[in-house]
Q: What sequence folds into this?
């Protein structure tokens, strides 16, 4: 196989004729394919048009008999047309789908379903078409009884004579179609013609390919191969140093021009040999003109030759020692590359420093090469010095810059780690990391960065660092066991030619404590706002308890002992109302307690319901209706339920106040409604809280989530509710957006990732 491939690659005839053969074959094949397809389409189109004409002829033949409602004549006509050579079956079907007449007795009275392809030719549209196109009328092309059959449907339209009530039968004028004519045509003869045409076309294409290819191959051998062989012969003579033979036959085409060029090249080579001596002078000029310093030294390190660059930069003469010229030394250098070249006979490279004639310090890359005489003896060494003084100065600048950045790295207040991307092992860290965690730098170097996390699932943090995502909150542990919260920023980098992560860790414990205090203050303010509703909520069970006690007291006052059924009913009512009041108080106590900074998987629908239960009296007192549109299959999200309850209550308070503000401006007959909807899509859960209030002014859209910014009147808002809610949602990896509704009011969209989509802090 390899020999065949090498043969093809080494022969021009194969390189040219094979691609030409491929292109020729492809062209003829495409032409044949197109021709066969054209003949096939042409034959089928003619058959279909003929089928349409036959269908129209059959309808015309049936017209008179159908007008007279002569069933025997209609059946006879159907049977006669079915005897035609191409026709396999004729059916007349009424508008109810019943086969009224058929050339096949077993088809008669058969019911055709509306979904059948025959009916769909017209009924595929909302309003059935009265005049289907020819392509729509051909509703089936399949094999039946061993031959290909084409089925065509043609509507039988209602005419004026059919709807004349004076006749023996009639149809209503609004009925546009009375039925359809269904014809089956055999394609056996056309298929035979198509097959025969395809066979003849393929024979013709093969003959055309063979004749054309052989003609082109013959022309190539005569017009290309033979002249090229003559060129190869002349080239071999030139390679042997012999002059090529005179051209006996000259041609003016491209190959002839190539042969002339090669012949002239052979003549020119002879002349070029005479110029070789001139090249020596050229090399001498190069020796003198190159920008690097070049010297030739003997075994005693004396200068035998040097170029112009050396002469310009040093005060030296032939015969002087190189170490005196370069470094003003009285003895050779301890590690001399020229000496190593004489000992080993090999090229040597090193870096050296010295001074020019003006006293300036210089640095060079020194390369030495052996020089042999005609008998192969090592007689001298060539030393070439390339000035790298500027590069050395730049290296010094880089080292100083590197030292500066190392100082910044070590003294930055935050903890900074260099982690191996493969296993998160700590490659380096700064003083801030030692101070923050309490371990010595040598101890941290033997640890993994994941060891610094508290006892939690660390896979989400690994995923976040690998993706280059910031970790807003995670719990770390010091050497003493103290747990604290940190924010982590990681970015890929390179350290000692290894791929690493540069990780910055910031202690956010104090910030979180401050945020918790602010959130707690907001909760207390919210509880104060809801005091009226909560008092009303507790008064109801107290009123029931008082009424039950009064009932028992009246019985005792009259000297009657309450019956057992009455006492049982009273105790049940009292127990229920005490449980209701306890539940309200516990809910207030739970809402008012300080939230723990820990996340769990939570069902938002339940948190929304608890928030509403806690706030329902506030809305009920203002006759505000709440519409619920909850997704029953809502996935879990990762958050702290107490804080999320505070977020939803903040939005319900804002919705309540917005509706009250609109009522004060436009009157009490405005719609009072809050709509709460949950949904999920593409890994996120969305809660939409809409109201029918005043909406958000356009100027406040960009500032509505800023701390202490409020659109409410003085004394009615602190400007902290939305800001705190925004911070909580952002901490959970979500977002909040607001839009004004077309019919008034505003809609807030709270979007949170589904549990497991984003790493977070907590236990």
A:
């Amino acid at each position: 196989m390899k020999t065949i491939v090498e043969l093809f690659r080494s022969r021009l005839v194969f390189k040219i004729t094979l691609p030409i053969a491929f292109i020729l074959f492809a062209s003829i094949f495409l032409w044949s394919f197109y021709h066969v397809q054209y003949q096939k389409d042409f034959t089928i189109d003619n058959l279909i048009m003929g089928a349409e004409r036959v269908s129209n002829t059959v309808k015309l033949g049936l017209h008179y008999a159908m007008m007279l409602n002569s069933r025997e004549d209609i059946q006879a006509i159907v049977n006669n047309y079915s005897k035609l050579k191409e026709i396999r079956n004729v059916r007349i079907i009424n508008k109810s789908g019943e086969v009224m007449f058929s050339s096949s007795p077993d088809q008669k009275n058969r019911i055709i379903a509306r979904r059948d392809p025959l009916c769909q030719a017209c009924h595929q549209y909302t309003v059935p078409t009265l005049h289907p196109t020819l392509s729509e009328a051909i509703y089936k092309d399949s094999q039946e009884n061993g031959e290909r059959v084409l089925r065509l449907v043609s509507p039988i339209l209602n005419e004026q004579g059919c709807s004349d009530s004076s006749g023996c039968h009639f149809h209503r004028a609004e009925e546009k179609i009375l039925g359809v004519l269904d014809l089956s045509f055999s394609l056996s003869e056309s298929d035979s013609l198509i097959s025969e045409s395809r066979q003849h076309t393929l024979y013709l294409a093969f003959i055309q390919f063979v004749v054309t290819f052989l003609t082109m191959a013959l022309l190539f051998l005569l017009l290309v191969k033979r002249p090229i062989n003559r060129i190869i012969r002349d080239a071999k003579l030139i390679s042997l140093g012999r002059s090529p033979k005179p051209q006996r036959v000259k041609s003016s085409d491209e190959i002839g021009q190539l042969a002339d060029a090669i012949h002239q090249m052979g003549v020119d080579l002879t002349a070029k040999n005479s110029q070789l001596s001139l090249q020596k002078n050229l090399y001498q000029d190069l020796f003198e003109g190159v920008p690097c310093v070049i010297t030739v030294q003997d075994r005693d390190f004396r200068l035998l030759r040097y170029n112009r660059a050396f002469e310009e930069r040093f005060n030296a003469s032939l015969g002087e020692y190189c170490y005196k010229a370069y470094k003003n030394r009285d003895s050779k250098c301890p590690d001399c590359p020229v000496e190593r070249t004489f000992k080993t006979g090999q090229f040597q490279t090193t870096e050296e420093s010295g001074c020019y004639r003006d006293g300036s310090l210089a640095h060079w890359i020194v390369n030495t090469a052996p020089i042999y005489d005609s008998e192969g003896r090592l007689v001298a060494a060539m030393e070439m010095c390339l000035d790298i003084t500027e590069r050395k100065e730049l290296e010094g600048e880089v080292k100083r810059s590197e030292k500066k950045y190392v100082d910044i790295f070590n003294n930055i207040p935050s903890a900074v780690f260099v982690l191996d991307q493969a296993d998160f092992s700590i490659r380096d860290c700064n003083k801030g990391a030692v101070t923050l965690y309490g371990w010595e730098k040598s101890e941290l170097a033997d640890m993994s960065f994941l060891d610094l996390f508290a006892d939690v699932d660390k896979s989400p943090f690994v995923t976040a660092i690998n993706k280059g995502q910031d970790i807003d909150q995670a719990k770390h542990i010091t050497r003493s066991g103290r747990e604290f919260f940190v924010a982590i920023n990681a970015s890929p980098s390179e350290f000692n030619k290894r791929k690493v992560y540069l990780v910055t860790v910031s202690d956010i414990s104090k910030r979180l404590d401050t945020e918790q205090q602010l959130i707690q203050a907001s909760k207390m303010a919210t509880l104060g706002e809801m005091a009226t509703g909560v008092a009303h909520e507790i008064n109801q069970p107290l009123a029931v308890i008082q009424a039950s006690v009064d009932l028992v007291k009246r019985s005792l006052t009259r000297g009657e002992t309450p019956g057992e059924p009455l006492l049982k009913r009273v105790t049940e009512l009292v127990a229920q109302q005490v449980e209701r009041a306890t539940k309200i108080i516990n809910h207030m106590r739970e809402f008012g307690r300080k939230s723990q900074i820990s996340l769990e998987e939570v069902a938002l629908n339940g948190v929304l319901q608890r928030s509403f239960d806690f706030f329902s009296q506030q809305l009920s007192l203002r006759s505000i209706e709440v519409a619920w549109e909850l997704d029953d299959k809502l996935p879990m999200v990762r958050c702290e339920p107490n804080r999320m309850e505070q977020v939803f209550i903040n939005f319900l308070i804002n919705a309540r106040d917005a509706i009250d503000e609109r009522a004060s401006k436009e009157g009490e007959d405005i719609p009072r409604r809050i709509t709460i909807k949950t949904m999920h899509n593409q890994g996120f859960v969305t809660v939409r809280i809409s109201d029918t209030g005043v909406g958000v002014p356009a100027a406040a859209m960009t500032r509505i989530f800023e701390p202490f910014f409020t659109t409410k009147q003085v004394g009615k808002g602190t400007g902290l509710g939305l800001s705190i809610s925004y911070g909580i949602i952002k901490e959970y990896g979500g977002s909040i957006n607001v839009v004004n509704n077309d019919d008034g009011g505003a809609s807030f969209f709270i979007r949170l990732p589904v549990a497991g989509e984003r790493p977070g802090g907590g236990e």
User: Anything to note?
Assistant: The two ends are 68 Å apart (CA to CA). Residues 323 and 329 are 6 Å apart (CA to CA).
